[in-house]
Fold:
Amino acid sequence: MNTRNSNAATRQRGFPAILVNAVGRRVTSVERNASGKKVFNLGGSLILLLLPSILLSQVTAHHTVTVVVQTITLLQINVGTVALNITGAGLIAGQNQMTATDQSTTISWGTNSSLKKITVKTNLAAPIFTMQVIALNPTVGTAAAQVTLSTVASDLIINIGRSSGSSSLQYTGVALASQGIGKDTHSITYTIQTQ
Amino acid sequence: MKKITPLFALAAFCAFSFQTVFAQVTATQTVTLAVSSIQKISVSGNPAPLIIGTGVAGTEGLTSVTDATTTYSETHNNALPMKITAGIDVALAAGYTLQINLASTKGTSSGVVDISNATTAVSVVTAIAKGSDNAKAITYTFSATATAGVLISGTKTVTLTITT
Structure:
């Protein structure tokens, strides 16, 4: 079909049609049809017009692959519950202030966007006693000063770039003898967010 | 292009929403702080020996001596007021008197209290509110009569107790 069209095109343009078979033998002839027009007789031989098809046996294709990395921010606390008990052990008579500390918690994070910070707050609006927390030696970022927990978020670790890191958390419960006996239960929320 | 635009907008919205949702990530932890009933009391040390070495001629009572070099401190967080009692391990013999006076800010001092025979503790400070008193003076007064005679060694142990 293609050969026929090609020949017709050649014929219409008036070029001499010379076709050669695989052994170089001329296989075409120019004849005239019933209306006296010249037509080509291709014969049954394999012709070199197949060469382009041979060349086309090595073909290429392409498509587009889109890769996307979303903003990923992770935050995890390794301990679910911490209990601080002030029992008077180690307390010196005459001191009004009593403290208890806990350093069993580790906070871990990962972020692939730059300049984040971790804040901390408690849900307890009116605690009896004072609860403080500080990040100790964060592997990434800068620890803020010791935070006295409130319902307003305060910076705990700042200047966190694209990274994964961790830090120990030190809780300090502070009670005054004049505040009496009691118990505070804090639900403490840590948030990693844009600085 | 007209078909792609809404899809692109939707995709962009989803991407934005995703980023918005994950722009803040939180973790929570429960931390409890419990303070139990606490009572503490201490003394700074031992007073110097109370030595009676003189008197007034014609007077039965010898010249008493005092010591106010020691202090006590206390802390308690009980809702109800507490008190401090003082007791002595062994009562003094007749004719010898040992008195104690504890200063107090958080409570009411009983003033000078004779503890010569206080093998059963007696109150020396009462109505102590929760909180602390630090380094409050303890004043001892030791007196004797001439009739009681010489007392070679009279080491006594005075115990202060904070109690309800």
Remarks:
- Chain A touches chain B through 56 residues (CB under 8 Å).
- The longest helix of chain A spans residues 2-13.
- Residues 141 and 160 of chain A are 5 Å apart (CA to CA).
